[in-house]
Automatic annotation (TrEMBL):
PANTHER family: EYES ABSENT, EYES ABSENT HOMOLOG 1. Mg(2+) binds at residues 143, 145, 381. This is Eyes absent homolog. GO terms for biological process: cell differentiation; DNA repair; negative regulation of extrinsic apoptotic signaling pathway in absence of ligand; positive regulation of DNA repair. Transmembrane segments: none annotated. Its EC number is 3.1.3.48. Residues 56-70 have a biased composition (Low complexity). The lineage of its organism: Eukaryota, Metazoa, Chordata, Craniata, Vertebrata. NCBIfam families: EYA-cons_domain. Keywords: Activator, Developmental protein, DNA damage, DNA repair, Hydrolase, Magnesium, Metal-binding, Nucleus, Protein phosphatase, Transcription, Transcription regulation. The active site is at residues 143, 145. Residues 103-118 have a biased composition (Basic and acidic residues). It is found in: Nucleus. Residues 1-49, 71-85 have a biased composition (Polar residues).
Amino acid sequence: GSSFTTSSGLYTGNNSLTNSSGFNSSQQDYPSYPSFGQGQYAQYYNSSPYPAHYMASSNTSPTTPSTNATYQLQEPPSGITSQAVTDPAAEYGTIHSPSTPIKDSDSDRLRRGSDGKSRGRGRRNNNPSPPPDSDLERVFIWDLDETIIVFHSLLTGSYANRYGRDPPTSVSLGLRMEEMIFNLADTHLFFNDLEECDQVHIDDVSSDDNGQDLSTYNFGTDGFPAAATSANLCLATGVRGGVDWMRKLAFRYRRVKEIYNTYKNNVGGKNSCAFKSTGLLGPAKREAWLQLRAEIEALTDSWLTLALKALTLIHSRTNCVNILVTTTQLIPALAKVLLYGLGIVFPIENIYSATKIGKESCFERIIQRFGRKVVYVVIGDGVEEEQGAKKHAMPFWRISSHSDLMALHHALELEYL
């Protein structure tokens, strides 16, 4: 194998697992790697100053160069080049991969809400999240903004400044996408009703759902928004309200879940001679959405396409799962996931909002859900997810550039991860 460092060709920038002691092909038995336990991470990562299977990083800025770690890897496959990966086909969000039960079962405004933990009154738990797969080995916990998608840095112009793009164009694209996100959230996902009643997870209020048939239910006349506004029933300390009001809240989250599962791979609809559907957006907005997605991909040098390569590779494995933890409120986060074509790699049960409880607490919930026998890998660009990973002794893969996404995909292909 050959060596690549943070100053070499394809893998320029702060890539791979920070301050790794190196993957040396002469020292590791790769065929046996998929069966490793979390404690074995010590042989790959610098043991100081963090726990043995967490590697340290002094770099907390997504725009600054990394430390000079050296990695011993095989030559990258010929399919990966230093050129940006482009996907001129405008049909986004159609990703096909093997399915497993756990995978395929059913911006400043984004900062308010409540933790909304289920109070567990012993009522019917309608459509709970599926139990973890018994053969699950690895859980990849992803950040969203500036890791999988470029969004906030479009709005601020910082991406354009960093990569020599036109800042006004960048800001315009960001504003157009922001408008589309909130339009979808307000129109189809009850964000006007739920903005002050945000939850961490889609099933957090499902215990208040009595399972009533909602096919003819009129959400517009059930009195929920007025009650929420007048009584200030959603507070930062948790959800407050009577039995009837809580049931109406649960109904909305159940419908959101149904909508997400229906359109997670078809938010824009199809438009071909063989098959047509309007999706959630309708024909006119669908065309605007496709155009906007293409323009953002061009400006960001196919950042999302690179992230999707890693996400879909993980999704194709029967023993791995993708989890999303974002500081965006849950409802706008779901809108983002749908509009960026990520629904197929993130089932709604695998999406968590850290708006109120923080990412570290979300990590604790995920550990409680999947157990301590699996290996967790955190992928992100920010300090919060890095610190959460450190506390729970999880390896952290920093994303600060395109090359980091390429290196991640390469490491996944070689089954280092």
